[in-house]
Write a structure and sequence with these properties.
mainly alpha
């Protein structure tokens, strides 16, 4: 019936005579909507009221000369707002359709009664009539005072409603109010209405995937509101500025009592405010010191770290991956530290961290980059870890490449000082703070790399790569992984395939930095990490870059020999070990090639022989064939001479090893046990590297011999074990050159030790004994004596003493591992002289051995052990080697 009203009848409804009836009708409809239990009837009452207002507003009879319907319905606004607030904020579960109808009705009432009345003159003349309200500034102020608390209550109740349709209708409700109501009303309530679209900008993060349209709708409205309303209304802009100032001033204090969801919602609102202001608004904020300081301090307080929750994992550093990671499209919003998520003081969930990152990202994207970088430079100079985290998030929002990052990069590098390891409990808190600060500085380098322009890339890498490599080997897991992540960011940004490719392409610069820092002994810890990393990814072709580095390391070692720092010795040890691995790999590859060449040559000779057999006259040889054969002989002679000259010329890797070995003969007697162990290990690797250069190998073995023999008299068993390993390497490379001196100066003491310890290890196959150093030395000697005898090419008589020292370990009462080692050693002895070994085995097995044939051999000494215990192991050797 209301929809079918004519214009004349509709005008009569709004006439002065009919207004009491209209007010009564509104009261009846609202009573039905609030108190009726039948939900369909309640919904129908709201729809009827909504239709009445719409018909009144759209009536063509009102042409600006008659009374504005808003003036009439404004007189009923208090009762309407009270009843609709009851429906919308009822604690009982209200039907969602009823809530949506109430919101639509309330939206129409507010936009009708609170619209701008600056051009409405007729209402002023009719203000004395009954049920007519003159909507002046005073009325708007009183109305705002009464309505805003109710509206805030409605928004607080419905903003987190489970139903998507309710939240969407609430968003439309606030949107219409903000676009159509007068600024006189919005001056004190704009923050309440803006809270809804601002909090729904990231609706897809908080709810399921079906709610993404809310985020799109809110984003569209905020963009429109920022462009159309704020730019045209200076008053509303000032109001929003004041609201932002109040928000960022109170939020750091309020978040201490808020739960996780409310903190995330508040951050989204702050993000919405920043988005709403746009480029011009943010530029204005950046120009006002007080506003700017409060905004950035609010973000820094939000990002405050919880140092008590940080796990400290020392001495567990994963190696850098050889392959680069794939870059995602949403890298700007990914967590800045993926290996171990940061712990924040005021929130724990990753979703809240992403909200904070997004807020900083939007701020960085809207600010003028030059003004922003100038302000961030001050933060980078004195900011703590939380401030630097915020700074890095903001820097990610800058879209344009620039060279203005140079000063921030310099500040970052100036604050990065490679710390000395410390384990004092009193300094743990300060150390955690310093490590978190270091992580943020390292992450910041990766962010600045993404802003680096093309012309500055090479210089950027030169200034940062050495520092990143040094921190990638730091003892703290969190710091080292952050440095590796940053290097991966550099590799991805500057189009390198992986981290190793990045280092290999810039090895010349890195080695130059290493050479400079080696001259200052206080930098030796970070230099050790960098050299180790470079050596681990290089090949023999890169060693010329490291030759000068080795010279600098040796020179620094000569000056600081007595210092307690082991890094210089580690550098030399790393050099030798890496060169050994590279040389061994190269030899394996060349062996594969040589096998292939040999196979091809055999095929060629076989085919040539077949061809020669098919010839009719094999005895006739033409002059041309003689000339060609002579040319081939000359070519072979020339190739032989060239190969001899190549052998006489020492490769660069061999010359580097010789330099290290020359220092080893002095370092081998160092008072520190660990340094002596590293030196012996270096000698073992170094001798194997130069094994093909006999003219240098043998003189070096002669120089190292007497210091090496002295180590067999060391009080530390570990040193004796390393010395024996070194002796095996020397025997393997020098062969009979060290045979006589080994038999005279080394083997007697080792054989005496084996004989004495054989009595102590008898019947001691227990875990306790197997953990002793003497047992480990026994095992190492028995495992290596056979190979040593084979490499030294010892004679029969020299073999007797070795056999005599090994046989006691054939006893079944000896530890099992010692028995196995003795059996393996005896197999080497049999290769040297099977007859002597047969005699000793048979003498140990029974009395049937014909001792007259071996009258020059000494008898086996059975003192302290029974020969019957050895029969099982003797049978094993006889079956495997003599059958």
């Amino acid at each position: 019936m209301i929809k079918s009203l004519s214009a004349e009848n509709c005008a009569n409804v709004l006439s002065a005579e009919f207004r009491p009836i209209l007010g009564h009708s509104i009261s009846v409809l609202l009573n039905f909507a609030v108190y009726e239990k039948y939900k369909d009837l309640r919904k129908l009452a709201l729809i009827t009221f909504h239709t009445l207002i719409q018909k009144s507003i759209s009536n063509s009879a009102w042409n600006g000369t008659s009374i504005n319907p808003g003036d009439i319905f404004a007189s009923f606004l208090p009762g309407i707002s009270v009843n609709l607030t009851k429906i919308l904020t009822n604690d009982d579960k209200v039907n969602r359709e009823l809530i949506i109808s109430s919101l639509r009705l309330f939206r129409v009432i507010l936009t009708c009664t609170l619209c701008d009345t600056s051009g409405d003159i007729q209402s002023k003349h009719c203000s004395n009539e009954q049920f007519i309200v003159f909507r002046d500034d005073e009325w708007f102020e009183k109305c705002s005072t009464k309505l805003v608390p109710a509206i805030r209550k409605i928004i607080f109740t419905l903003i987190s409603h489970q139903a998507h349709e309710v939240r969407k209708e609430l968003l439309i409700f606030c949107k219409e109010i903000l676009l159509n109501c007068s600024t006189k009303f919005l001056r004190s309530s704009v923050d309440a209405f803006l809270e809804v679209p601002l909090s729904m900008l990231n609706e897809d993060d908080d709810y399921d995937g079906n709610c993404k349209d809310l985020s799109a709708l809110a984003t569209e409205f905020i963009s429109h509101f920022s462009a159309a309303v704020l730019n045209s209304s200076r008053t509303l802009t000032d109001v929003i500025f004041d609201q932002i100032y109040k928000f960022v001033s109170s939020f750091p204090r309020e978040m201490r009592s808020l739960d996780e969801n409310h903190i995330a919602a508040k951050i989204n609102i702050l993000n919405g405010y920043i988005t709403c202001l746009g480029t011009s608004g943010i530029s204005l904020i950046m120009s006002m010191d007080l506003y700017r300081q409060r905004l950035f301090q609010c973000l820094i307080d939000l990002a405050e770290f919880d140092y008590k929750s940080i796990d400290r994992l020392y001495n567990f550093v994963k190696p850098i991956s050889d392959t680069g990671g794939d870059s995602a499209d949403e890298d700007n919003l990914k967590p800045l530290f993926d290996v171990k998520r940061k712990k924040f003081k005021h929130f724990n969930e990753t979703r809240t961290e992403r909200c904070l990152q997004r807020c900083c990202f939007v701020l960085g994207s809207l600010c003028d980059k030059n003004v922003l970088l100038d302000f961030l430079l001050d933060i980078s100079r004195a900011g703590n870890a939380s401030a630097l985290y915020t700074l890095n998030c903001i820097l990610r929002g800058i879209k344009e490449k620039t060279t203005n990052i140079v000063q921030i990069l310099e500040e970052y590098l100036a604050r990065l000082r490679f710390p000395q390891p410390s384990s004092q409990l009193s300094k743990i808190k300060a150390q955690i703070d310093k490590e978190m600060l270091t992580c943020q500085l390292l992450e910041g380098i990766g962010v600045l790399a993404s802003l680096c322009c093309v012309d500055y890339r090479h210089k950027f890498i030169n200034e940062t790569l050495f520092v990143l490599i040094a921190y990638s080997g730091f003892e703290n897991y969190m710091v080292s992984q952050t440095a590796k992540n940053t290097m991966q960011d550099l590799a991805d940004t500057f189009d390198y395939t992986c981290i190793n490719h990045l280092i290999a392409e810039n090895v010349n610069y890195i080695t130059n930095c290493v050479n400079i820092k080696l001259r200052h002994f206080e930098n030796i810890d970070e230099v050790n990490v960098v050299i180790t990393k470079i050596l681990n990814i290089t090949n023999l072709n890169c060693l010329p870059y490291l030759e000068r580095t080795l010279d600098e390391a040796i020179a620094t070692l000569d000056v600081n020999y007595q210092s307690g720092n082991k890094c210089l010795f580690k550098i030399l040890h790393t050099f030798v070990k890496v060169v050994y691995n590279l040389q061994r790999t190269a030899c394996e590859q060349s062996n594969d090639v040589s096998h292939e060449s040999t196979f091809k040559m055999q095929c060629y000779l076989r085919n040539k022989k077949i061809a020669e057999c098919l010839q009719i006259d094999e005895s006739v040889e033409t002059n041309e064939e003689k000339e060609s054969s002579e040319e081939q002989e000359e070519r072979v002679e020339q190739e032989a001479e060239a190969s001899e000259r190549a052998k006489s010329k020492l490769p660069i890797y061999a010359s580097m090893i010789l330099k290290i070995l020359e220092r080893c003969k002095h370092i081998i007697s160092h008072p520190d046990v660990k340094i002596r162990l590293m030196t012996l290990d270096s000698i073992a690797y170094g001798m194997r590297v130069i094994r093909n250069f006999e003219e240098h190998l043998l003189p070096m073995a002669h120089q190292l011999w007497h210091p090496l023999v002295a180590r067999f008299k060391d009080n530390d068993v570990m040193i004796i074990m390393s010395a024996f390993t070194c002796l095996l390497a020397m025997a393997e490379t020098c062969k009979d050159f060290v045979r006589s001196r080994t038999l005279k100066e080394v083997l007697p003491s080792l054989i005496y030790f084996l004989k004495c310890e054989a009595k102590r290890s008898y019947r001691k196959d227990t875990p306790a004994y197997r953990f002793t150093l003497n047992y480990k030395l026994q095992l190492q000697l028995l495992s290596g004596l056979g190979k040593l005898a084979n490499d030294l090419l010892i004679t029969e008589r020299d073999l007797w003493t070795l056999v005599d020292a090994t046989l006691p370990y054939f006893s079944a009462k000896q530890p099992r591992e010692l028995q196995k080692a003795a059996l393996n050693a005896f197999k080497f002895y049999i290769q040297i002289d099977p007859c002597v070994c047969w005699y000793f085995l048979m003498q140990l097995y029974n009395d049937r051995a014909d001792c007259d044939d071996y009258s020059g051999l000494a008898a086996v000494n059975f003192e302290g052990w029974q020969s019957d215990d050895c029969k099982r192991n003797v049978n094993v050797v006889l079956k495997e080697e003599y059958t």
